């Protein structure tokens, strides 16, 4: 189920739940950095949208002011005052609505961030499980290799001990034989 891939020592493991192939780098993990970067970009994008909407609102207010007559000639001053008051209240409502939306969007990334953190935790947990499986396989292979080495060592040690004992026996025999030969040749 695991294969080495080139210089990067990647392990490929099949996800049983989704029947997908995951690449789990042996020592490298950049998923947290990339997710934080994605969330930061998302927040920046939302802030830019809100700034654009605020600028549009300001431009709308400016265009409303420009549309107002500078000097009402034929209209009743009370009527102009009422119209201006209505337009002012509409602009205030839009402004309040934009402020509320801006505040809500500033708070929304927290829920987005929480979702990303939950996703990261899940990924992290899955990666840990993958690493544990790989570690168990490595340890089982190591234990098997060590057992084989110990058997070979014991066999070689026994063989060398027998050779050593045989050499000692041969040496003792040669000493006896040379002692017997020297004792028989004495005058």
- Which structural class should the secondary elements be placed in? mainly alpha
Q: Distance between termini?
A: 84 Å
Shape: rod-shaped
CA radius of gyration: 43 Å
How many β-strand stretches?
2
List low-confidence stretches: 1-29
Percentage of residues in strands: 5-15%
Please tell me the overall pLDDT: 77
Biggest pleated sheet: 2 strands, antiparallel
Strand order of the largest sheet: 1-2
What's the SSE pattern?
Answer: EEHH
Range of helix content: over 70%
Q: Number of helical segments?
A: 2
Could you describe the 3D structure shown?
By secondary structure, the chain is mostly helical. It has a domain at 31-146. Helix content is 78%, strand content 6%. The protein has 2 helices and 2 strands. It has helices at 31-67, 77-184, and strands at residues 10-15, 20-25. The protein has a two-stranded antiparallel ribbon with strand order 1-2. A hairpin with a 4-residue loop joins strand 1 (10-15) and strand 2 (20-25). It is rod-shaped, with a radius of gyration of 43 Å. It starts with 9 loop residues before the first strand and ends with a helix.
What's the SSE blueprint?
Elements: E1 10-15, E2 20-25, H1 31-67, H2 77-184
Antiparallel strand pairs: 1-2
């Amino acid at each position: 189920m695991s294969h080495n891939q080139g210089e990067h020592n990647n392990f490929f493991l099949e996800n049983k739940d989704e029947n997908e192939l995951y690449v789990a780098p042996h020592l490298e993990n950049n998923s947290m950095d990339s997710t934080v970067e994605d969330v930061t970009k998302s927040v920046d994008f939302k802030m830019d949208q809100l700034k654009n909407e605020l600028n549009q609102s300001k431009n709308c207010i400016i265009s409303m002011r420009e549309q107002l007559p500078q000097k009402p000639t034929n209209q009743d001053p009370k009527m102009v005052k009422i119209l201006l008051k209505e337009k002012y209240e509409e602009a205030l409502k839009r402004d309040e609505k934009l402020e509320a939306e801006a505040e809500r969007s500033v708070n929304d990334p927290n829920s987005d961030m929480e979702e990303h953190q939950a996703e990261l935790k899940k990924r992290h947990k899955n990666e840990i499980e993958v690493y544990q499986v790989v570690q168990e396989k490595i340890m089982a292979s190591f234990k098997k290799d060590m057992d084989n080495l110990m058997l070979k060592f014991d066999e070689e040690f026994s063989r060398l001990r027998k050779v050593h004992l045989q050499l000692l026996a041969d040496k003792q025999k040669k000493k006896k034989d040379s002692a017997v030969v020297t004792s028989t040749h004495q005058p």
